[in-house]
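U., I forgot to send this yesterday:
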Amino acid sequence: MECCIPHRHHHFSTKLCFSFSSLCASKSFIAPPKRPSTARTFPLRALISNTRSSSASTSSFTWDDVVRVSQPDHVPHDSSDLSGFFEKIEVCNRGSERQSEFIRFIIEDQIVGYIHNGFVDRLRTFKDVFVFPRSNSDGGRFQSYVTLHEMLKTPEDRTRVVGEVIKCLGEEELIPGIRNELYPVVSSFGSPVYFSLERAAAPYFGIKAYGVHMNGFVEKDGEKFLWIGKRSEVKPTFPGMLDHLVAGGLPYGISCGENVMKECEEEAGIPQSISHKAVPIGAVSYADIEGYRYKRDFLFCYDLKLPDSFLPNNQDGEVESFKLIPVKNVANIIRRTHFFKPNCSLVIIDFLFRHGYFFSIVSAICFDPFDLSFNHFQTYA
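Result:
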């Protein structure tokens, strides 16, 4: 794997420096009530069902709704209200108070993930695959952790045997939405791959998952516009919601740049003669706990300036339609609604910062608006 992160990584956290004010949004666009934090008292199937509902519910808005709510005069006088942006960051960073409910998943002495105690109970039935030693690595206190059976020594054997477990759990609907797409299990990006895991299972094992998101934009008469996609209603996750022009997970065995060009062709019909110009501009990460799922995602972000004449054309059936929207109006959609797939909002908020759309607001407010941590990255090979 290789990815070039030229200058920074934003960890979008929930450590905000001010109290949220009420969202300036009509009731039809207000988010559903937050999920309860009492997951440990739920039976396993009920908890999995709860988790699935957050990403599998069908949207009920049209492009007309999107255009209407994006207009500056739809909610007058909210241009200096940042609470809607903060809320989108919070949505991707829930459950930090529940980290103690997860135990470490360790391979070859390296922590590769975190698994909920309740889900561990189900894994204990696969005695030839998972074992549960105890260690005193935490200040003399003995703690349990999960690892793989010592007979599973090679990445190929681990992938095959764990894959059979995932297939079984999928048939029981304990891991919904099996995609038959493998993610590498690593301790950090660019480190050795211990085995490969079904994408749908990644949050149940708390592994780090990597993806690419690309902002496809156009400039007309000095104004920037973003191409926005509306996901197919038959997508297993976030059907019908707004999305980037191009985005996708980073499977095993493909580089970020190769993946961007592949996704450009599949999702928007962008030829390599254009997509090879996509510029890596940084990364966004977040950590979200919901039920038994612990999503630890790291998104490599790209910008691609497109020709005025370009019209996207979906090739893989995953996007229903596209629309070109002024960037300032896209900001309003994020601020006022929950129309976007949650992690897309984070990447677009980063785009708004980098392209100067927040400067006039933030410069008048005396706090660090997102409590971002900035790290410098080098090229990984």
